[in-house]
Amino acid sequence: MPAPVDAPFVGLALSGGGARAMAFHLGCMRALNERGILEKVKVVSTVSGGSVIGACWAYRGESFEEFDSHIVGILRRGLQWHIVRGVFLTSEGPKILATLAVTGTLSLIIGALTFVLSRGRRWLGIPTGSIETLLSSLASRLPIWGSLTTAFEAALDRDLFAKRTVDQVQRSGLSAIINACELKTGTAFRFGSDGSGGWRYGSIVGQPTSVAKAVAASAAFPILLPPLVETFDFDDRGQRRRETVSLTDGGVYDNLGVAVLEPGRFDDSILRYPVTHLISLNAGGGQYAGSDDRHFWWAGRVAQSFNAVHRKSQDAIYQRLHKHAELGELAAFGMIYLGQQDNKLPSLPADLVRRDQVKDYPTDFAPMSDQNLALLTRRGEQLTHLIVDRYLNRLGS
Fold it and tell me: Are 353 and 375 in contact (CB under 8 A)?
C-alpha cells in the first residue's frame, strides 16, 4: 500500500561482498539504529553477503542488541565451517557424492560426444544437429541431488533461520527482498515477503520458499559455489507452468540490490515499492589504485575485465539514483560506500578508519579477527553518521 505523501517510505539496500559486506553493513546498521532510522525502514533489499545479515535482521526478530551479538559471532566463527559440516556430517554429503558420481560422469560423457559430433558436423558436413540437440536435452535432465550450495542451504536452515519461509518476516511493517540471478535467462530472480519470482517466469505459486534457500541462492558466488537448481510452479499473467531455474549470486545481476527499489524501474520486476528515501550500503573497495601488472595472462585479464564491467554498471546505477533525487523522484538518496575516497567525504573525523585499512579485506566467509571486525564495523558507523548528516538528516532523530 502506498505511503501517505507526508510519510517517508524508506528503502534500505545491502550490497554483496561476503564477510566484508556483513561487517561493514553491521556497522552501518548500528549507526542507523542509533539515529532512529533503522526502525523506519519499510523495505530491505539484499544481495549475497548482504542477504545473510539482512535476512537475519528481517527473519529472526531479535532486539538490535541480540542481532548485533549474533552477527558478531557469525563473523568470528566464519560460515565456511557451516558448509564443511553440511558436507561431511549431514545427509548432504552422500547426495553430493551421488551427484558427482552419476551426473558428473554422464555429463562428461555427453560433453565429449557432443564435441565429437559438432566437429564432424562442421568439418565433414555430417548431419548430427538433431543428435546434439537430443544430448543437450538429456544433459539438462540429469539429476542434481546435492551440491556445496545445497549444503550451505541446509546449514543456514539449521543454524540461522529455523525453517522459516520468506513470507514470515518477524518485524512489523517490514518487507524483505532477497536477490539472486537466474543464469539461463540472465535476469533478476527475487524471493520476497510480498512475492517471489522473476519477470521471465512470473510469480512462484504454492508453498513459500524457505529463507535458507533464498539466501543460499543469493550468496552462491559462482567461482566457488554451483548454482541452486530448483523447480517451481509459476503464474505468468494467469498462465500456470512448471519451470526449472538455475540460481546464482545476486551480484551477477545487481550487486547493490537497489534495482528493485529504483523509481520508474528498469527491470520490469514483479515487486514494486513506493520508495521515497533510499539508503544504499555498498561494501565495494572503490577505485583501483593502479599497479605495474599488465594483466597479460588469462586469469588476470579476465578478472580485471570483469571488475571493470562490474564497476561501470554500478556507476551507471548510482548516476541514475542521483538523478532521481535531483528530479524529486526520490526525496533523498544516501550512498554509504566502504570504498569512498576519504578526501571526498563531507568531513573527516579525527579517528576515521581509513579506506586503505579495509578496502582489500577478502570477501570470503573465513573467520574474521577482532581487529578486522572492529575496523570494518567502525568505518561503517562513521560513514553512516556522515552521510545521514549530509543527505538524510530529516530522517534521523
Answer: yes
